[in-house]
Amino acid sequence: MQEDISIYEAAKYPWSVMARSLLKQLDVPLAEVDKNLRIVDRAKQRLMDAIETHSPRPKRGLSDDAYAELTSFFIAKALVDAIGSMYLRRRWATIEAKSTEDFLIKESDGKLAQFAKQEFDWQISSNGSRIAGRTYSHSIHFTNYLAAAAGFHEREWKLVNKRLNNGFVMLRKTETARVLRAAVEKLLIRDIKKVPADFPPNIQRVYEEIAVLVQKRADRLKQEIEGEIVSEAFPPCMQALLTDMRQGKPLSHIARFAITAFLLNVGMDVDSIVELFMQAPDFREDLARYQIEHIAGKRGSTAYTPPSCAYMISVRLCVDPDKAGTRRHPLNYYRYRRKQLSKP
Amino acid sequence: MGKEGPAHVFHSAAYYETPDAPQMPLKGWKGADLVFDIDADHFDLPCQKQHDSWWCLDCEKNGRGHRPDQCPQCNGTRLKTLKWMCGECLAKSKHEVIKITENFLVPDMGISKNDITIVFSGHRGYHIHAFTPKLHSLGSQERREIVDYISGTGIDFRYHGFVENSYGVPKGPDSRSLGWERKIAEGIRQRFRKPEQLSHIPGLRANQIRTLQQDAKSIYKQLAEEPPRYITPKGVGQKAWYTIAQHVVESYSAVVDEPVTTDIHRLIRLPGSLHGKTGFLVKHLDLAKFDDFDPFNHAQVFSGTATVQISNAPAFTLNGEHYPPMREIKKELPLSAAMLLLCKGVAELVI
Description:
The complex is a heterodimer of chains A (about 350) and B (about 350). Chain A is globular, with a radius of gyration of 24 Å. In chain A, helix 1 packs parallel to helix 5, helix 6 packs antiparallel against helix 9 and helix 8 crosses helix 9. Chain A has three domains: about 110 residues, no CATH class; about 80 residues, no CATH class; about 110 residues, no CATH class. With about 350 residues, chain A is mostly helical. Helix content of chain A is about 60%, strand content about 5%. Chain A contains 17 helices and six strands. Chain B has three domains: about 190 residues, DNA primase, PRIM domain, CATH 3.90.920; about 100 residues, no CATH class; about 45 residues. Chain B is α+β, with helices and mostly antiparallel strands and about 350 residues long. In chain B, strand 8 and strand 9 form a beta hairpin. In chain B, helix 6 packs antiparallel against helix 8 and helix 6 packs across helix 9. In chain B, the strands form six sheets. Chain B has a four-stranded antiparallel beta sheet with strand order 4-9-8-11. In chain B, strands 6-5-7 form a three-stranded antiparallel beta sheet. In chain B, strands 15-12-16 form a three-stranded antiparallel beta sheet. Chain B contains twelve helices and 16 strands. Chains A and B meet through helix 8, strand 5 and helix 15 of A and helix 5 and helix 6 of B.
């Protein structure tokens, strides 16, 4: 009976240390797992959910087969590792983390805190407090908070908009669960293992199906951004930088980097960008070309993408910080607007 | 270093597994101190119009204060600058250091004073280093959030007690709260305790200020209640609260050089070395004695004298001695003063 409870717990949080050690204890050979179609199908379902679901939560039939639930997570993870697509990894991490959040919400305040300590070594307390008429269930050290939540783009999550005192951020329970979800997501994105694509037959079949699907998605995303450049779809920040450039206004270093990286990513060639910079008061073609090629990745190993909206806000290049929350990234904005504009 | 005699010496604020590896990715980043750079360069101060100057290398146009982006006469961008420093700009830098530590690092972020050191940069500002191990592993994005916290960037008053279009008594920041909300609540209340402060708030119209000042006493009373009541007199809309709150944020917040804090591989001036643009000592300072520190006295290391041919130097004070503006003159000066002029490039050594 004791074991059933822990399998159920592990199935809820299959990425946790506890789940991993339980799986090790069970020690079922992969060939054996491959014969259990419930597991294989569930693993496939997990990845299909990741690719196809936009935001809704994956459906879970946890109670009927906790063992399949737990094991399928690890099969899915191995497939993500083997396919090696960052796109798939991100989407998979997102839905798994969301599912974790759903379970966490139902736990007690104390369990949440204990969990955060045990899995992420957070400094967290679940001694609730009432401050100026508002109730908070948890306080967590701001460095732990930032490590998980610094990338959130809604303003309410900015540290400057939180109650911070003596190193601790006050959170409500739903907020704590949300921050934990982000920590789980980051953990899953970072935990990359090199896995050769060499599975027993049933899992191998799923591997091939998913790999094809992911490739199709990647091609489509690429298409959305490549092709004809639609300058009407540029985000306001980039439009403003372009206007400044055309008027020959000197741009700061970071502004030049942002606009160059943006234009390269939407498919403009180096020559056209050099031409734009010609208006700059301190223009030197050799230097401009060198730097643009560097950003394009032709000189170093990295091809750069433009900074995120959060960064643009911080360096005060964002034109409309209040609305920027609707997008995370200038390229994301472009992709979306371009699609909108192309609709008849 | 003794052999080379470099003009500027820096050390890494980051820690590495193998610091001498030939390429950055091979060094194995372990963490970095949290560093803030406070430099008078980032302020707009009246004294800079007195002692800072620039000139265009193309057309010889010149001017005072901050260097423009391009020459107003010939649109050239080859501009040279002479940046000077005085008691006023260093006092402003000092004030910012105190704001950062006393308003944010210690009370809000819970960083112990023992884990904070201040370094005089040797020129126009200070560096604050926070050594707490928990801060080491923070990434760039996390550090940017800390900069935003300190500078009040992205603050949204709806998350600090104000409720838009609410029924009943208008709600606002509560001083029993924590962090920024408490600061805003206290700052607003203070402005009604001393209503003359209300006249310095940009964005309020003259008639609004008059009305608020007339009613200051009763408004103060309502703000002191628990919870506070943010009722405005007739003719002043609820929006005025945001204007006042913004003003309070600007007075509490501090200006830091963002790229320095967010760069997790930063090189920073080495304490104990001399700044190549001044000859002043880059100096570790005790937070407890920071108030008394005067760089024009306490960061001077030279004794003796030297004779220099001065081209054009603004007025300055060093080691208690005041020097008037000097132009095209040969003079024997105490070595610290001579060194400053030499480092600034406005004098040549006469042997």
